[in-house]
Design goal:
This protein has a single domain, classed as P-loop containing nucleotide triphosphate hydrolases (Rossmann fold). It has helices at 61-68, 91-100, 108-111, 118-127, 133-146, 163-175, 193-210, 221-225, 245-250, 255-262, 303-307, 324-328, and strands at residues 12-25, 30-45, 50-54, 76-81, 84-85, 101-104, 181-185, 213-218, 230-235, 238-244, 313-314, 320-321. Strands 6-7-8-3-9-10-12-11 form an eight-stranded mixed sheet, with helices on both faces. A four-stranded antiparallel sheet has the order 2-1-4-5. With 329 residues, the chain is an alpha/beta fold. Helix 4 (118-127) crosses helix 5, helix 4 (118-127) runs parallel beside helix 6 (163-175) and helix 5 (133-146) packs across helix 6. The chain is 32% helix and 23% strand. The chain is globular and about 70 Å long. The structure holds adenosine-5'-diphosphate and magnesium ion (MG). Adenosine-5'-diphosphate binds next to strand 2 and helix 1.
Length: 329
């Protein structure tokens, strides 16, 4: 990607992003409803910073990731990468973008070919850079060292590694092409708590060394807290609250954010509570009701919440909340 932009310009800016999936029924597969997976999402990521994207399973986080990577086309909205709309890119620019924006998944097993050695997997990315075999070999060793795996690991297969080590390999693979943005989609959700911290520390180190920007996705606020400069809380395809990390933890405004925080275990991480304070289940994103999407579970709900679309209120300093009650309080 060209690097001609102003230093203050966000690496990624997403506006009014929408993706609905049709639900089809019957012999003729007529459209029977819409899953509003992403329903008007806005956020931006500053260069070299981390945006945490949090919300319960099914709220649309991975769909946002796939839209940003253009693995999926949006119905509406703009995705500006380094100031350029990714929908207007030429094939050549799209190829460059595919390198510059990488993804790390929850399960690196899914992204690593089990029949390839770790070295071969990392080499796949390096080959696209058009460098010599010798240089690639040296680079593989350097990458493995960077993520804390011995160079002997290059000749082993994914199944010979633990979950945490496999995730390190997944990160090495993403790093191989020197990306400027990495989307981490629940990168530590499948790992033991002690290992989670190690992987998050590694990601933070890499950011400090290489200035990488992250979109860090998780369903657990605890997990995004340490690495994120700013946090965006999603519910049923919409953003409920966005704030700098300190502000969000010191002064959570949306009833949903508060419920998520109340569910965060304070001392013993093994005694994880699953959203005790949140009544009910996550409702289906299939044809959600008008008004606030959180109305069915909200302790503060009033008629107005069921009647009108709730807009964003700025509580000051860029602390945005989609709740009029929170602002009134
Ligand atoms: N390709 C698809 N077709 C139909 N529905 C989908 C598709 N992908 C995701 N969904 C639905 O969209 C909603 C959001 O999914 P997802 O983005 O995976 O959520 P999250 O990552 O937050 O768990 C879910 O209800 C999911 O079932
Ligand atoms: Mg997901």
């Amino acid at each position: 990607m060209e690097q001609t932009q102003q230093p203050t310009e966000p690496v990624l800016a997403v506006t009014a992003l929408k993706k609905y999936f049709p639900v089809r029924r019957g012999f003729f597969q007529r459209i029977d409803g819409w899953i509003k997976a992403v329903d008007g999402v806005d956020f931006h990521i500053e260069r070299g910073r981390t945006l945490g994207l949090v919300g319960e399973s099914g709220c649309g986080k991975s769909t946002v990731a796939r839209l940003v990577l253009r693995l999926l086309d949006a119905d509406r909205g703009d995705i500006l990468y380094n100031g350029r709309d990714i929908h207007g890119l030429s094939a050549k620019e799209m190829k460059a973008l595919r390198r510059d924006m990488q993804i790390v998944f929850q399960d690196p097993y899914g992204s690593l070919n089990p029949r390839m050695t770790v070295g071969q997997s990392i080499d796949e990315g390096l080959r696209t850079l058009g460098i010599s075999r010798g240089q690639r070999k040296a680079r593989i060793e350097e990458l493995l060292e960077t993520v804390g795996i011995t160079t002997a690991g290059a000749d082993r297969y994914p199944h010979e590694f633990s979950g945490g080590q496999r995730q390190r390999v997944g990160i090495a693979r993403a790093l191989s092409v020197e990306p400027s943005l990495i989307i981490c989609d629940e990168p530590v959700s499948a790992l033991d708590v002690s290992i989670q911290a190690q992987i998050i520390n590694l990601l933070k180190d890499l950011q400090d060394r290489f200035g990488i920007s992250y979109l860090f996705i998780a369903h657990d606020l605890n997990v995004v807290a340490y690495i994120s400069d700013r946090i965006t809380v999603m519910y049923l395809g919409q953003i409920m609250e966005s704030a700098d990390t300190d502000a969000l933890f010191e002064n959570p405004l949306h009833p949903y954010t508060r419920a998520l925080l109340a569910a965060v275990p304070s001392t013993d991480p093994r005694a994880r509570k699953e959203m005790k304070s949140l009544g009910g289940e996550v409702p289906s994103p299939l044809d959600p009701p008008p008004g606030c999407k959180f109305q069915g579970r909200c302790p503060l709900v009033e008629d107005r919440c069921r009647e009108e679309e709730i807009r964003f209120y700025d509580a000051g300093g860029g602390h945005l909340v989609r709740c009029w009650k929170a602002i009134e309080e």
